Each structure stands twice: as structure tokens, then as C-alpha cells.
Amino acid sequence: MSNHNSNQPENYSAAPEAAEPKKGLFGRDKVAETTPENDPSYGKNLSFAAAEAYRLLRTNLMFALPDEQRCRVIGVTSANAGEGKSTTALNLAYMLAEADKSVILIEADMRLPTISKRLGLKPTPGLSNLLAGLSSGRSVTRKTDLEEKLTVIPCGDIPPNPSELLGSEQMKTAIEVFSQSTDFIILDLPPINEVSDALVVSRLVDGIVMIVRQNYSSRRALAEAMRQLEQANAKVLGFVMTAANTMNKWSGYKGSYKKYYKYGYRYGYGYGYGYRSRYSQAAEEQKKAENERMKS
Q1: Is residue 62 part of a domain?
Q2: CB contact at 8 A, 76 and 88
Q3: Could you give the CA distance from residue 51 to residue 43 in angstroms, rounded to a whole number?
Q4: How, if at all, do strands 184-188 and 103-107 pair?
Q5: Is residue 135 part of a domain?
Q6: pLDDT-derived band of residue 290, with 50, 70 and 90 as boundaries?
């Protein structure tokens, strides 16, 4: 499938498992005590409604990228932090593996990795170590208890130059090599408006899935992210709306299906809160380093 830009991408699905996070004392986000075995935000612990939404996303992506004779490489990102991109990438990879597809999930958000921690996986060695030539491809892969056909490549040691590593020839070679032995590669990428990493990687993927959080993302932020993707000639496959209140749309489901929605709407993406400032700090440090290199 050619990597041409799509100005009017399709709207794939709404993932209804997320809502506003619980609030503790003084209005702070209350962090739920979860483990990889009982985390309700991914895998077998998903609510009925959330699981069906991710299966719909899986189906639509298979239609969008129908060539089963080769590996399909998909990037998952968002305009800003806290919109649920990592959760979506994880669940998309899980649902593809559930459909008997071999999947490699790459934790390419080297600035604020979350997937390996949530899955209880050893974070190093990982992608950064592989790209720096410090580890082999075999040593950076991890199997999970979620699905037999799902493999995860964690971030690895946090590097000082994520954009340079992700845009390197080593990254291109790594994707080409991994593509020879799997059906799908899913990359969890940093937010577009925070750092340039996702734009750098966009040339290596078959398409980008944009995550948009309801009542959180602004039109201006999304428009800016789409502008940057268009300039990078990236192909946008579609949007996934998280924290979507779909019960109003199908009012008939409020009765018998209400129990399936209840927990999902209380959980939310609280773990993403507070990332914006840290991403901004990382971006400022990167910009400062680039300015110093130009001066020298």
C-alpha cells in the first residue's frame, strides 16, 4: 500500500473504556492500584464495550491495509500527551494477536515509555540499545502472557537523542528485519505537538492512527498535528476517539449493556496526566541542544 497523504482520513472507532480519572483529596488524580494481571485497561480485562471497539478498529485496519503478503507497519500517536495512545497501541496489538496474527509491539516513545512497565516486562535491553548497536534483535524482544503471538520490544535505556535514533538507518533496518517474521508491527509513538519523534518515524510506516480524546483534545491542537503530518507526507489511516461516551448515541443499550460500560467509564487515562510538562521540557532541551550545535 502506497504511503500517500490522506487529507480526509476515515473515522474508525470510538474506544469507550476511558473516562475522567478518579479524583482524590484536593482534586488530584487518584491512581488505582493495579497489576499486569488485574489492569482493566487492556487485554483480557477489558470491558465488553471496549473490547468490541478495539475489534472494530482491528477490522477497519485490516480493510485499510489488505495486503496480507507482507508485514504492515502502523504508528499510533496523538496531538498531545494524555490522550490514550499507548493504551490504544497495546490493545490494538493484543486484538491483532487474538485474531491469530503475529504482532510486534514496539515501545518507540523513548521519552516517557509506559507499556513495558504496565506489562511487568524488563525494560532493558530494548529498542534504544538495539539502535545504538549495543544489543542484538533477539535480546530485545519480550514475550507476554497476553497472547502467544504478541511480542513486545521495550524502550530500553532512555537515550539523550531519541529523534536521532528513531530517524537513523539502524531504525529503518530494524523494521525491515522484524518485518520478515511478523504480520504486523505496531509502534507507540510520542505526541506530535510535543516532540518531533513521530514525524521522523512516519516515513517508515504504512500509516498513522491518530488518537483523539473526547472533551480533552482541542481543534487547534489536532489541526496543528494534522498540518505537521501533511508536511511530512505521512498517511493518516484514521482516528480513534478515546473516553467516548457512546451510550447517548445508542440509547437502547443503556439497559442490558449498561453493566458493561460502568467500570470502563470510571477508570480513565489518569496515568497520562502530568506528561505534558515533561514532554515540553524534553522538547526544550532538544531544541537547546540543536541550537548549540548550530552555533558550534
Answers
A1: yes
A2: yes
A3: 8
A4: parallel
A5: yes
A6: low
2 lies in some domain: no
Nearest residue to 279 (alpha-carbon basis) of 212, 195, 201: 195
- Which residues form the domain of 87? 10-295
Neighbouring C-beta atoms of residue 206, cutoff 10 Å: 21
Average pLDDT over residues 18-32: 43
CA distance 212 to 254: 24
Supply the CATH number for residue 173's domain: 3.40.50.300
- Residues 6 or more apart in contact with residue 58 via CB below 8 angstroms: 92, 95, 96, 99
* Cα 38 to Cα 45, 118, 149, distances in angstroms: 7, 11, 21
DSSP letter (8 states) at residue 23: B
Number of C-beta neighbours around residue 99 at 10 A: 16
Residue 102 phi, psi dihedral angles, 5° rounding: -80, 130
Q: Please indicate, yes or no, if residue 4 is contained in any of the structural domains.
A: no
What secondary structure does DSSP assign to 32-78, as a single string? Answer: P---TTT-TTSGGG--HHHHHHHHHHHHHHHHHS--TTS-EEEEEEE
Secondary structure of residue 236 in the 3-state scheme: strand
What is the Cα–Cα distance from 53 to 130, expressed in whole angstroms? Answer: 34
Q: Are 6 and 236 in contact (CB under 8 A)?
A: yes
Number of domains present in the structure of the chain:
1
Query: What is the pTM assigned to this prediction?
Result: 0.75
User: What pLDDT sits at residue 253?
Assistant: 37
Contacts of 102 (CB under 8 A, 6+ apart): 149, 151, 181, 182, 183, 184
Q: By C-alpha distance, which of 128, 92, 82, 134 is closest to 107? A: 128
Among residues of the chain, what percentage have pLDDT more than 90?
62
